[in-house]
Specification:
The complex is a heterodimer of chains A (about 240) and B (about 325).
Chain A: E1 2-11, E2 14-24, E3 29-33, H1 40-48, E4 55-60, E5 63-64, H2 70-75, E6 78-81, H3 93-104, H4 110-116, H5 121-124, H6 135-149, E7 153-157, H7 165-180, E8 184-188, H8 192-195, E9 200-205, E10 208-213, H9 215-226, H10 237-241
Parallel strand pairs in A: 3-8, 3-9, 6-7, 7-8
Antiparallel strand pairs in A: 1-2, 1-4, 4-5, 9-10
Helix pairs in contact in A: 3-6, 4-6
Chain B: H1 3-20, H2 26-29, E1 35-39, E2 42-47, E3 52-58, E4 62-69, E5 79-84, E6 89-100, E7 105-114, E8 119-130, E9 135-144, E10 150-160, E11 165-174, E12 178-188, E13 193-202, E14 207-216, E15 222-231, E16 236-245, E17 251-260, E18 266-275, E19 281-289, H3 293-300, H4 306-318
Parallel strand pairs in B: 1-5, 4-6, 5-7, 6-8, 7-9, 8-10, 9-11, 10-12, 11-13, 12-14, 13-15, 14-16, 15-17, 16-18, 17-19
Antiparallel strand pairs in B: 1-2, 3-4
Helix pairs in contact in B: 3-4
The chains are: A alpha/beta (about 240), B mainly beta (about 325).
Bound molecules: adenosine-5'-diphosphate and magnesium ion.
Amino acid sequence: MLQIQDLSLNLDNKPILRNINLSIHRGEIHSILGANGTGKTSLAYVLMGLYRPTSGRIMFEGEDITELPVHERAKRGITLAWQEPARFEGLTVGEYLRLSRERGGGSISPERCLEMVGLTPFLYLGRAVDGTLSGGERKRIELASVLAMEPKLAILDEPDSGIDAPSLDHVVNVIRTLAKGGSSVLLITHHEQIAEIADRATCLCAGMVLKTTNPQDIVRFFRNHCRECLHINRPEEELVRNI
Amino acid sequence: MSETSDRSREFDAIVEAYERSGGDPSALLDGRFASLVVSGNKVLSSNSVPGVVLEGQETETGVRAYVKVEPGTKVPFPVHLCFGVLPQEGLQEIISEFEVGEGAKVKFLAHCFFPNATNVRHIMDSRVHVGQGAEMEYSETHFHGRRGGTEVVPRTQVEVEAGGRFRNQFKLVTGRVGRLDIDLEARLMERAVCDLEVKVYGKEDDEINVKESVYLDGEGARGLVRSRIVVTEEARSEVLGEIVGNAPFTRGHVDCVEIVQGERAKAKALPLLQVSDPTAKLTHEAAIGSVDKRQVQTLMARGLSEEEAVDVIVEGLLK
Ligand SMILES: Nc1ncnc2c1ncn2[C@@H]1O[C@H](COP(=O)(O)OP(=O)(O)O)[C@@H](O)[C@H]1O
Ligand SMILES: [Mg+2]
Protein backbone atom coordinates (compact mmCIF):
# COMPACT_ATOMS: atom_id res chain seq x y z
CA MET A 1 0.00 0.00 0.00
CA LEU A 2 2.96 2.33 0.63
CA GLN A 3 6.06 2.33 -1.53
CA ILE A 4 8.99 4.55 -0.70
CA GLN A 5 11.20 4.78 -3.77
CA ASP A 6 14.80 6.09 -3.84
CA LEU A 7 13.87 8.69 -1.28
CA SER A 8 16.49 11.24 -0.22
CA LEU A 9 16.27 14.32 1.96
CA ASN A 10 18.79 17.08 2.50
CA LEU A 11 18.36 19.67 5.22
CA ASP A 12 20.75 22.62 5.28
CA ASN A 13 22.68 20.88 2.50
CA LYS A 14 23.25 17.93 4.81
CA PRO A 15 22.07 14.49 3.70
CA ILE A 16 19.53 13.29 6.27
CA LEU A 17 17.85 10.47 4.34
CA ARG A 18 19.71 8.58 1.61
CA ASN A 19 18.10 6.61 -1.11
CA ILE A 20 15.50 4.87 1.00
CA ASN A 21 13.50 2.03 -0.51
CA LEU A 22 10.82 0.46 1.60
CA SER A 23 7.36 -1.01 1.13
CA ILE A 24 4.67 -1.32 3.75
CA HIS A 25 1.87 -3.81 3.20
CA ARG A 26 -1.78 -3.44 4.11
CA GLY A 27 -2.40 -4.30 7.76
CA GLU A 28 1.31 -4.71 8.39
CA ILE A 29 3.04 -3.51 11.56
CA HIS A 30 6.48 -2.37 10.50
CA SER A 31 9.02 -1.33 13.12
CA ILE A 32 11.76 1.19 12.47
CA LEU A 33 14.76 0.93 14.78
CA GLY A 34 17.77 3.17 14.82
CA ALA A 35 19.99 5.09 17.21
CA ASN A 36 19.36 8.76 17.93
CA GLY A 37 19.83 11.04 14.98
CA THR A 38 19.68 8.34 12.31
CA GLY A 39 16.72 9.95 10.53
CA LYS A 40 13.66 8.18 11.92
CA THR A 41 11.68 11.32 12.64
CA SER A 42 12.80 12.86 9.35
CA LEU A 43 11.43 9.82 7.52
CA ALA A 44 8.12 10.17 9.38
CA TYR A 45 7.96 13.86 8.42
CA VAL A 46 8.65 13.19 4.75
CA LEU A 47 5.91 10.55 4.66
CA MET A 48 3.42 12.92 6.32
CA GLY A 49 4.41 15.78 4.00
CA LEU A 50 6.07 18.02 6.58
CA TYR A 51 9.37 17.84 4.68
CA ARG A 52 9.64 17.79 0.89
CA PRO A 53 12.11 15.12 -0.19
CA THR A 54 15.12 16.19 -2.27
CA SER A 55 14.53 13.26 -4.61
CA GLY A 56 12.54 10.07 -4.83
CA ARG A 57 8.87 9.16 -4.79
CA ILE A 58 6.21 8.13 -2.33
CA MET A 59 3.42 5.97 -3.72
CA PHE A 60 0.29 5.37 -1.65
CA GLU A 61 -2.35 2.96 -2.94
CA GLY A 62 -1.02 3.42 -6.44
CA GLU A 63 -1.04 7.21 -6.30
CA ASP A 64 2.06 9.40 -6.31
CA ILE A 65 1.62 11.53 -3.17
CA THR A 66 5.13 13.03 -3.12
CA GLU A 67 3.83 16.53 -3.81
CA LEU A 68 0.62 16.41 -1.77
CA PRO A 69 0.23 18.72 1.23
CA VAL A 70 -0.24 17.30 4.73
CA HIS A 71 -4.03 17.46 4.91
CA GLU A 72 -4.46 15.85 1.48
CA ARG A 73 -2.40 12.92 2.71
CA ALA A 74 -4.51 12.80 5.88
CA LYS A 75 -7.66 12.72 3.72
CA ARG A 76 -6.24 9.69 1.94
CA GLY A 77 -5.81 7.93 5.27
CA ILE A 78 -2.27 8.78 6.41
CA THR A 79 -1.65 10.24 9.83
CA LEU A 80 1.17 10.82 12.27
CA ALA A 81 1.55 10.72 16.03
CA TRP A 82 4.34 13.15 16.90
CA GLN A 83 7.25 12.23 19.12
CA GLU A 84 6.61 15.48 21.04
CA PRO A 85 2.99 16.39 20.32
CA ALA A 86 1.92 20.04 20.23
CA ARG A 87 -0.24 21.56 22.97
CA PHE A 88 -3.43 23.54 22.34
CA GLU A 89 -4.93 26.11 24.64
CA GLY A 90 -8.70 25.80 24.97
CA LEU A 91 -9.11 22.71 22.78
CA THR A 92 -10.55 19.87 24.85
CA VAL A 93 -9.53 16.25 24.59
CA GLY A 94 -13.12 15.44 23.62
CA GLU A 95 -13.10 17.99 20.80
CA TYR A 96 -9.70 16.81 19.60
CA LEU A 97 -10.82 13.18 19.48
CA ARG A 98 -14.15 14.05 17.84
CA LEU A 99 -12.53 16.07 15.08
CA SER A 100 -10.00 13.28 14.52
CA ARG A 101 -12.80 10.74 14.24
CA GLU A 102 -14.91 12.91 11.93
CA ARG A 103 -12.06 13.78 9.58
CA GLY A 104 -10.64 10.28 9.57
CA GLY A 105 -14.05 8.67 9.12
CA GLY A 106 -13.43 6.43 12.13
CA SER A 107 -16.16 4.70 14.12
CA ILE A 108 -14.64 4.31 17.60
CA SER A 109 -16.06 6.68 20.21
CA PRO A 110 -13.80 9.20 21.97
CA GLU A 111 -14.58 7.42 25.26
CA ARG A 112 -13.44 4.08 23.88
CA CYS A 113 -10.28 5.61 22.37
CA LEU A 114 -9.32 6.99 25.79
CA GLU A 115 -10.03 3.69 27.52
CA MET A 116 -7.86 1.95 24.96
CA VAL A 117 -4.86 4.13 25.88
CA GLY A 118 -5.56 3.68 29.60
CA LEU A 119 -7.06 7.07 30.40
CA THR A 120 -10.36 7.33 32.28
CA PRO A 121 -12.74 9.11 29.86
CA PHE A 122 -14.69 11.22 32.32
CA LEU A 123 -11.48 12.58 33.81
CA TYR A 124 -10.02 13.60 30.47
CA LEU A 125 -12.74 14.41 27.91
CA GLY A 126 -13.30 17.91 29.31
CA ARG A 127 -9.65 18.76 29.90
CA ALA A 128 -7.70 20.94 27.51
CA VAL A 129 -4.93 19.44 25.35
CA ASP A 130 -2.60 22.02 26.89
CA GLY A 131 0.41 22.33 29.12
CA THR A 132 -1.43 20.99 32.15
CA LEU A 133 -1.22 17.44 30.75
CA SER A 134 1.91 15.50 31.60
CA GLY A 135 4.14 14.40 28.73
CA GLY A 136 2.91 10.82 29.01
CA GLU A 137 -0.75 11.86 29.10
CA ARG A 138 -0.31 14.06 26.04
CA LYS A 139 1.35 11.21 24.14
CA ARG A 140 -1.41 8.78 25.01
CA ILE A 141 -4.00 11.30 23.85
CA GLU A 142 -2.08 11.62 20.58
CA LEU A 143 -2.26 7.86 20.16
CA ALA A 144 -5.97 7.94 21.02
CA SER A 145 -6.53 10.56 18.31
CA VAL A 146 -4.76 8.36 15.75
CA LEU A 147 -6.96 5.45 16.79
CA ALA A 148 -10.03 7.70 16.47
CA MET A 149 -9.14 8.33 12.81
CA GLU A 150 -8.81 4.61 12.02
CA PRO A 151 -6.27 5.56 9.38
CA LYS A 152 -5.01 3.39 6.55
CA LEU A 153 -1.47 4.21 7.55
CA ALA A 154 -0.53 5.26 11.08
CA ILE A 155 2.98 6.63 11.48
CA LEU A 156 3.82 6.44 15.17
CA ASP A 157 6.98 8.28 16.17
CA GLU A 158 8.13 6.69 19.43
CA PRO A 159 4.62 6.25 20.87
CA ASP A 160 6.26 4.41 23.76
CA SER A 161 8.82 7.01 24.84
CA GLY A 162 7.95 8.96 27.98
CA ILE A 163 5.26 6.41 28.81
CA ASP A 164 5.44 4.51 32.09
CA ALA A 165 5.91 0.75 31.96
CA PRO A 166 2.34 -0.23 32.96
CA SER A 167 0.96 1.88 30.13
CA LEU A 168 3.12 0.20 27.49
CA ASP A 169 0.60 -2.65 27.32
CA HIS A 170 -2.03 -0.11 26.28
CA VAL A 171 0.24 1.19 23.53
CA VAL A 172 0.82 -2.35 22.24
CA ASN A 173 -2.90 -3.04 22.40
CA VAL A 174 -3.75 0.03 20.37
CA ILE A 175 -1.18 -0.86 17.72
CA ARG A 176 -2.61 -4.37 17.45
CA THR A 177 -6.16 -3.00 17.31
CA LEU A 178 -5.18 -0.68 14.48
CA ALA A 179 -3.60 -3.53 12.53
CA LYS A 180 -6.57 -5.83 13.13
CA GLY A 181 -8.82 -3.12 11.78
CA GLY A 182 -6.78 -3.10 8.56
CA SER A 183 -4.45 -0.17 9.30
CA SER A 184 -0.78 -0.37 8.43
CA VAL A 185 1.45 0.87 11.22
CA LEU A 186 4.90 2.34 10.82
CA LEU A 187 6.21 2.00 14.34
CA ILE A 188 9.29 4.01 15.27
CA THR A 189 10.58 2.77 18.60
CA HIS A 190 13.53 2.21 20.89
CA HIS A 191 11.90 -0.53 22.91
CA GLU A 192 12.94 -3.97 21.75
CA GLN A 193 9.82 -5.67 23.16
CA ILE A 194 7.61 -3.20 21.32
CA ALA A 195 9.55 -3.58 18.08
CA GLU A 196 9.05 -7.33 18.27
CA ILE A 197 5.28 -7.11 17.92
CA ALA A 198 5.88 -6.08 14.30
CA ASP A 199 5.49 -8.29 11.25
CA ARG A 200 8.69 -6.90 9.77
CA ALA A 201 11.31 -4.41 10.89
CA THR A 202 13.87 -2.06 9.39
CA CYS A 203 17.07 -0.78 10.91
CA LEU A 204 18.02 2.77 9.98
CA CYS A 205 21.50 4.26 10.16
CA ALA A 206 22.87 7.43 8.61
CA GLY A 207 19.51 7.97 6.92
CA MET A 208 19.89 4.66 5.10
CA VAL A 209 18.03 1.40 5.36
CA LEU A 210 20.59 -1.05 6.74
CA LYS A 211 18.25 -3.97 6.41
CA THR A 212 14.60 -4.96 6.40
CA THR A 213 13.69 -8.40 7.69
CA ASN A 214 11.90 -10.15 10.55
CA PRO A 215 11.81 -8.12 13.79
CA GLN A 216 13.71 -10.69 15.87
CA ASP A 217 16.81 -10.42 13.68
CA ILE A 218 16.61 -6.62 13.51
CA VAL A 219 16.15 -6.35 17.27
CA ARG A 220 19.14 -8.65 17.87
CA PHE A 221 21.29 -6.58 15.52
CA PHE A 222 20.09 -3.35 17.10
CA ARG A 223 20.83 -4.68 20.60
CA ASN A 224 24.31 -5.85 19.68
CA HIS A 225 25.42 -2.98 17.50
CA CYS A 226 23.21 0.12 17.74
CA ARG A 227 22.14 0.39 21.34
CA GLU A 228 25.53 1.50 22.57
CA CYS A 229 26.89 2.56 19.22
CA LEU A 230 29.99 4.75 19.27
CA HIS A 231 29.94 5.44 15.56
CA ILE A 232 26.34 6.56 14.94
CA ASN A 233 25.62 7.19 11.27
CA ARG A 234 28.83 5.39 10.19
CA PRO A 235 27.59 1.82 9.70
CA GLU A 236 30.01 -1.10 9.41
CA GLU A 237 29.43 -2.78 6.05
CA GLU A 238 30.59 -6.18 7.23
CA LEU A 239 28.11 -6.35 10.09
CA VAL A 240 25.19 -5.17 8.02
CA ARG A 241 25.79 -7.86 5.43
CA ASN A 242 25.45 -10.51 8.13
CA ILE A 243 22.22 -9.41 9.82
CA MET B 1 -48.40 55.19 23.05
CA SER B 2 -47.81 55.00 26.79
CA GLU B 3 -44.30 55.02 28.19
CA THR B 4 -44.87 51.76 30.06
CA SER B 5 -45.70 49.79 26.94
CA ASP B 6 -42.73 51.41 25.18
CA ARG B 7 -40.48 50.19 27.93
CA SER B 8 -41.93 46.73 28.04
CA ARG B 9 -41.47 46.44 24.28
CA GLU B 10 -37.84 47.54 24.66
CA PHE B 11 -37.41 45.06 27.50
CA ASP B 12 -38.69 42.28 25.22
CA ALA B 13 -36.28 43.39 22.49
CA ILE B 14 -33.34 43.34 24.93
CA VAL B 15 -34.31 39.93 26.30
CA GLU B 16 -34.51 38.65 22.74
CA ALA B 17 -31.07 40.09 21.87
CA TYR B 18 -29.76 38.61 25.10
CA GLU B 19 -31.06 35.20 24.15
CA ARG B 20 -29.69 35.44 20.61
CA SER B 21 -26.27 36.20 22.07
CA GLY B 22 -26.34 33.01 24.07
CA GLY B 23 -27.69 34.28 27.39
CA ASP B 24 -30.38 32.49 29.32
CA PRO B 25 -33.32 34.94 29.41
CA SER B 26 -34.99 33.15 32.32
CA ALA B 27 -32.21 34.59 34.52
CA LEU B 28 -33.52 38.09 33.77
CA LEU B 29 -37.08 37.14 34.67
CA ASP B 30 -36.46 34.85 37.64
CA GLY B 31 -36.81 36.68 40.96
CA ARG B 32 -34.12 34.58 42.61
CA PHE B 33 -31.46 36.21 40.45
CA ALA B 34 -30.34 39.73 41.17
CA SER B 35 -30.30 41.58 37.86
CA LEU B 36 -30.11 44.92 36.17
CA VAL B 37 -31.16 45.52 32.59
CA VAL B 38 -30.19 48.73 30.86
CA SER B 39 -31.01 49.78 27.32
CA GLY B 40 -29.45 53.02 26.18
CA ASN B 41 -30.10 55.33 29.10
CA LYS B 42 -33.14 53.46 30.41
CA VAL B 43 -33.22 51.09 33.34
CA LEU B 44 -35.70 48.50 32.08
CA SER B 45 -35.60 46.32 35.14
CA SER B 46 -33.69 45.90 38.32
CA ASN B 47 -34.09 43.15 40.85
CA SER B 48 -32.42 43.03 44.23
CA VAL B 49 -32.27 39.88 46.34
CA PRO B 50 -31.53 39.44 50.05
CA GLY B 51 -28.02 40.75 50.68
CA VAL B 52 -27.64 42.25 47.20
CA VAL B 53 -28.82 45.78 46.48
CA LEU B 54 -28.96 46.91 42.87
CA GLU B 55 -29.94 50.43 42.00
CA GLY B 56 -29.99 52.08 38.64
CA GLN B 57 -30.53 55.79 38.13
CA GLU B 58 -31.11 57.19 34.68
CA THR B 59 -29.00 60.12 33.50
CA GLU B 60 -28.97 62.18 30.30
CA THR B 61 -26.44 59.90 28.64
CA GLY B 62 -26.72 56.63 30.47
CA VAL B 63 -27.12 55.12 33.88
CA ARG B 64 -25.58 55.50 37.28
CA ALA B 65 -25.53 52.07 38.92
CA TYR B 66 -24.93 51.17 42.50
CA VAL B 67 -24.33 47.58 43.50
CA LYS B 68 -23.87 46.56 47.07
CA VAL B 69 -23.30 43.10 48.50
CA GLU B 70 -23.81 43.03 52.26
CA PRO B 71 -20.91 41.75 54.38
CA GLY B 72 -20.85 37.99 54.76
CA THR B 73 -23.39 37.36 52.00
CA LYS B 74 -22.54 34.40 49.82
CA VAL B 75 -24.70 35.09 46.80
CA PRO B 76 -25.88 31.69 45.54
CA PHE B 77 -26.69 32.70 41.95
CA PRO B 78 -24.73 34.96 39.63
CA VAL B 79 -25.89 38.55 39.45
CA HIS B 80 -26.92 39.30 35.86
CA LEU B 81 -26.13 42.63 34.29
CA CYS B 82 -27.28 43.50 30.84
CA PHE B 83 -26.21 46.59 28.92
CA GLY B 84 -27.39 47.14 25.38
CA VAL B 85 -27.78 49.74 22.72
CA LEU B 86 -30.17 48.50 20.07
CA PRO B 87 -30.30 51.48 17.66
CA GLN B 88 -27.53 52.16 15.17
CA GLU B 89 -26.37 55.27 16.97
CA GLY B 90 -26.11 56.39 20.55
CA LEU B 91 -24.09 57.12 23.62
CA GLN B 92 -24.26 54.95 26.70
CA GLU B 93 -22.34 55.98 29.75
CA ILE B 94 -22.51 53.57 32.66
CA ILE B 95 -21.07 54.94 35.83
CA SER B 96 -21.06 52.27 38.46
CA GLU B 97 -19.94 51.50 41.93
CA PHE B 98 -19.48 47.99 43.28
CA GLU B 99 -19.20 47.50 46.99
CA VAL B 100 -18.57 43.93 48.10
CA GLY B 101 -18.70 43.75 51.89
CA GLU B 102 -16.26 41.95 54.13
CA GLY B 103 -16.36 38.17 53.70
CA ALA B 104 -19.00 38.31 50.97
CA LYS B 105 -18.83 36.23 47.82
CA VAL B 106 -20.41 37.15 44.51
CA LYS B 107 -20.21 36.54 40.81
CA PHE B 108 -21.40 38.97 38.14
CA LEU B 109 -22.29 37.93 34.64
CA ALA B 110 -22.43 40.97 32.40
CA HIS B 111 -23.63 40.89 28.81
CA CYS B 112 -23.16 43.88 26.54
CA PHE B 113 -24.67 44.00 23.10
CA PHE B 114 -24.69 46.43 20.24
CA PRO B 115 -26.04 44.35 17.37
CA ASN B 116 -26.89 47.18 14.98
CA ALA B 117 -24.24 49.72 15.87
CA THR B 118 -22.78 51.99 13.23
CA ASN B 119 -21.91 54.79 15.61
CA VAL B 120 -22.26 53.84 19.26
CA ARG B 121 -20.14 54.93 22.17
CA HIS B 122 -20.24 52.71 25.24
CA ILE B 123 -18.39 54.07 28.21
CA MET B 124 -18.06 52.19 31.47
CA ASP B 125 -16.65 53.91 34.44
CA SER B 126 -16.48 51.54 37.38
CA ARG B 127 -15.20 51.70 40.91
CA VAL B 128 -14.89 48.40 42.66
CA HIS B 129 -14.24 47.83 46.31
CA VAL B 130 -13.70 44.27 47.48
CA GLY B 131 -13.75 44.09 51.27
CA GLN B 132 -11.54 42.04 53.56
CA GLY B 133 -11.65 38.36 52.72
CA ALA B 134 -14.40 38.99 50.16
CA GLU B 135 -14.49 37.38 46.71
CA MET B 136 -15.76 38.99 43.57
CA GLU B 137 -15.80 37.63 40.05
CA TYR B 138 -16.85 39.82 37.16
CA SER B 139 -17.26 38.29 33.77
CA GLU B 140 -18.23 40.53 30.87
CA THR B 141 -19.03 39.25 27.40
CA HIS B 142 -19.62 41.51 24.42
CA PHE B 143 -21.74 40.85 21.38
CA HIS B 144 -21.28 43.13 18.45
CA GLY B 145 -22.60 43.30 14.93
CA ARG B 146 -20.37 43.08 11.89
CA ARG B 147 -20.01 46.74 11.13
CA GLY B 148 -17.56 47.61 13.87
CA GLY B 149 -19.37 50.84 14.61
CA THR B 150 -18.74 50.91 18.34
CA GLU B 151 -16.31 52.56 20.62
CA VAL B 152 -16.05 50.62 23.85
CA VAL B 153 -14.24 52.36 26.67
CA PRO B 154 -14.17 50.49 29.99
CA ARG B 155 -12.39 52.31 32.82
CA THR B 156 -12.08 50.38 36.05
CA GLN B 157 -10.56 51.20 39.41
CA VAL B 158 -10.35 48.29 41.80
CA GLU B 159 -9.35 48.08 45.42
CA VAL B 160 -9.01 44.72 47.07
CA GLU B 161 -8.67 44.67 50.83
CA ALA B 162 -6.61 42.18 52.82
CA GLY B 163 -7.28 38.57 51.91
CA GLY B 164 -9.80 39.56 49.24
CA ARG B 165 -10.03 38.09 45.76
CA PHE B 166 -10.96 39.75 42.52
CA ARG B 167 -11.29 38.00 39.20
CA ASN B 168 -12.11 39.84 36.02
CA GLN B 169 -12.81 38.41 32.60
CA PHE B 170 -13.49 40.48 29.53
CA LYS B 171 -14.42 38.81 26.29
CA LEU B 172 -15.16 40.31 22.90
CA VAL B 173 -14.98 37.73 20.13
CA THR B 174 -18.41 37.81 18.49
CA GLY B 175 -18.80 40.33 15.71
CA ARG B 176 -16.32 43.19 15.67
CA VAL B 177 -15.85 46.16 17.89
CA GLY B 178 -14.44 49.12 16.01
CA ARG B 179 -12.45 50.65 18.80
CA LEU B 180 -11.76 49.15 22.20
CA ASP B 181 -9.86 50.94 24.90
CA ILE B 182 -9.60 49.09 28.19
CA ASP B 183 -7.96 50.69 31.17
CA LEU B 184 -8.03 48.80 34.45
CA GLU B 185 -6.11 49.53 37.59
CA ALA B 186 -6.16 47.30 40.65
CA ARG B 187 -4.62 47.94 44.05
CA LEU B 188 -4.15 44.97 46.32
CA MET B 189 -3.63 44.90 50.08
CA GLU B 190 -2.12 42.09 52.19
CA ARG B 191 -2.59 38.61 50.72
CA ALA B 192 -5.15 39.90 48.26
CA VAL B 193 -5.30 38.11 44.91
CA CYS B 194 -6.38 39.35 41.52
CA ASP B 195 -6.67 37.56 38.25
CA LEU B 196 -7.37 39.56 35.09
CA GLU B 197 -8.13 38.06 31.72
CA VAL B 198 -8.91 39.71 28.40
CA LYS B 199 -9.87 37.89 25.21
CA VAL B 200 -10.48 39.83 22.02
CA TYR B 201 -10.81 39.04 18.34
CA GLY B 202 -9.99 42.10 16.23
CA LYS B 203 -11.14 42.20 12.61
CA GLU B 204 -11.06 44.58 9.62
CA ASP B 205 -9.81 47.94 10.92
CA ASP B 206 -10.51 47.32 14.61
CA GLU B 207 -8.26 49.07 17.04
CA ILE B 208 -7.65 47.35 20.34
CA ASN B 209 -5.92 48.90 23.28
CA VAL B 210 -5.63 47.10 26.57
CA LYS B 211 -3.92 48.53 29.59
CA GLU B 212 -4.07 46.65 32.84
CA SER B 213 -2.08 47.58 35.90
CA VAL B 214 -1.87 45.75 39.18
CA TYR B 215 -0.28 47.33 42.23
CA LEU B 216 0.74 44.81 44.84
CA ASP B 217 0.73 47.15 47.81
CA GLY B 218 0.22 44.69 50.66
CA GLU B 219 2.54 41.94 51.81
CA GLY B 220 1.98 38.61 50.06
CA ALA B 221 -0.41 40.05 47.46
CA ARG B 222 -0.55 38.17 44.15
CA GLY B 223 -1.61 39.22 40.67
CA LEU B 224 -2.00 37.55 37.30
CA VAL B 225 -2.57 39.54 34.11
CA ARG B 226 -3.51 37.39 31.14
CA SER B 227 -4.45 38.42 27.62
CA ARG B 228 -5.31 36.50 24.48
CA ILE B 229 -5.76 38.62 21.40
CA VAL B 230 -6.10 37.70 17.76
CA VAL B 231 -5.97 40.31 15.01
CA THR B 232 -6.78 39.74 11.35
CA GLU B 233 -7.01 41.92 8.24
CA GLU B 234 -6.03 45.50 9.16
CA ALA B 235 -6.74 45.20 12.86
CA ARG B 236 -4.23 46.43 15.42
CA SER B 237 -3.74 45.58 19.03
CA GLU B 238 -1.61 46.92 21.77
CA VAL B 239 -1.46 45.34 25.18
CA LEU B 240 0.21 46.80 28.21
CA GLY B 241 0.29 44.45 31.17
CA GLU B 242 1.82 46.07 34.20
CA ILE B 243 2.54 44.74 37.66
CA VAL B 244 4.17 46.69 40.43
CA GLY B 245 5.50 44.83 43.46
CA ASN B 246 5.56 47.37 46.26
CA ALA B 247 5.45 45.07 49.26
CA PRO B 248 7.38 42.09 50.63
CA PHE B 249 6.75 38.64 49.20
CA THR B 250 4.41 39.83 46.49
CA ARG B 251 4.12 37.69 43.36
CA GLY B 252 2.96 38.67 39.91
CA HIS B 253 2.87 37.25 36.41
CA VAL B 254 1.99 38.76 33.03
CA ASP B 255 0.99 36.25 30.35
CA CYS B 256 0.26 37.67 26.94
CA VAL B 257 -0.44 35.89 23.66
CA GLU B 258 -1.21 37.90 20.56
CA ILE B 259 -1.76 36.18 17.25
CA VAL B 260 -1.41 38.07 14.03
CA GLN B 261 -3.21 36.61 11.04
CA GLY B 262 -2.31 37.85 7.60
CA GLU B 263 0.09 40.43 6.28
CA ARG B 264 -1.50 43.66 7.40
CA ALA B 265 -2.58 43.10 10.99
CA LYS B 266 -0.33 44.46 13.68
CA ALA B 267 0.22 43.63 17.33
CA LYS B 268 2.29 45.01 20.11
CA ALA B 269 2.88 43.67 23.62
CA LEU B 270 4.42 45.60 26.47
CA PRO B 271 4.88 43.67 29.68
CA LEU B 272 6.01 46.08 32.35
CA LEU B 273 7.31 44.86 35.69
CA GLN B 274 8.48 46.97 38.55
CA VAL B 275 9.57 46.07 42.07
CA SER B 276 10.38 48.28 45.00
CA ASP B 277 10.87 45.48 47.48
CA PRO B 278 13.68 42.93 47.10
CA THR B 279 11.46 40.00 48.13
CA ALA B 280 8.88 40.75 45.46
CA LYS B 281 9.02 38.46 42.45
CA LEU B 282 7.44 39.23 39.09
CA THR B 283 7.63 37.28 35.85
CA HIS B 284 6.24 37.59 32.35
CA GLU B 285 5.81 35.65 29.15
CA ALA B 286 4.68 37.06 25.86
CA ALA B 287 4.20 35.21 22.61
CA ILE B 288 3.38 37.36 19.66
CA GLY B 289 3.28 36.39 16.02
CA SER B 290 1.52 33.98 13.71
CA VAL B 291 -0.17 30.75 14.76
CA ASP B 292 2.23 28.06 15.93
CA LYS B 293 3.27 25.98 12.93
CA ARG B 294 3.41 22.69 14.79
CA GLN B 295 -0.12 23.14 16.07
CA VAL B 296 -1.29 23.75 12.51
CA GLN B 297 0.57 20.71 11.19
CA THR B 298 -0.85 18.50 13.92
CA LEU B 299 -4.41 19.39 12.95
CA MET B 300 -3.60 19.09 9.24
CA ALA B 301 -2.40 15.53 9.94
CA ARG B 302 -5.96 14.93 11.21
CA GLY B 303 -7.32 16.11 7.87
CA LEU B 304 -8.05 19.81 8.44
CA SER B 305 -6.97 22.31 5.81
CA GLU B 306 -4.55 24.99 6.93
CA GLU B 307 -7.38 27.57 7.26
CA GLU B 308 -9.55 25.18 9.24
CA ALA B 309 -6.64 24.34 11.51
CA VAL B 310 -5.98 28.02 12.22
CA ASP B 311 -9.69 28.52 13.00
CA VAL B 312 -9.67 25.68 15.53
CA ILE B 313 -6.53 27.03 17.20
CA VAL B 314 -7.83 30.60 17.38
CA GLU B 315 -11.21 29.46 18.65
CA GLY B 316 -9.55 27.51 21.44
CA LEU B 317 -7.36 30.43 22.40
CA LEU B 318 -10.32 32.81 22.60
CA LYS B 319 -12.71 30.38 24.28
N1 LIG C 1 15.29 20.94 10.50
C1 LIG C 1 16.51 20.35 10.47
N2 LIG C 1 17.55 20.99 9.90
C2 LIG C 1 18.78 20.42 9.86
N3 LIG C 1 19.06 19.20 10.37
C3 LIG C 1 18.06 18.52 10.95
C4 LIG C 1 16.73 19.06 11.04
N4 LIG C 1 15.94 18.16 11.68
C5 LIG C 1 16.75 17.11 11.99
N5 LIG C 1 18.02 17.32 11.56
C6 LIG C 1 19.15 16.39 11.67
O1 LIG C 1 18.81 15.22 10.99
C7 LIG C 1 19.34 14.08 11.64
C8 LIG C 1 18.24 13.08 11.87
O2 LIG C 1 17.33 13.60 12.83
P1 LIG C 1 15.99 12.85 13.23
O3 LIG C 1 15.27 12.49 12.00
O4 LIG C 1 15.27 13.68 14.21
O5 LIG C 1 16.58 11.54 13.92
P2 LIG C 1 15.91 10.48 14.90
O6 LIG C 1 14.43 10.69 14.91
O7 LIG C 1 16.31 9.18 14.33
O8 LIG C 1 16.52 10.69 16.24
C9 LIG C 1 20.00 14.58 12.90
O9 LIG C 1 21.38 14.69 12.65
C10 LIG C 1 19.40 15.94 13.09
O10 LIG C 1 20.30 16.80 13.76
MG1 LIG D 1 13.09 11.12 16.48
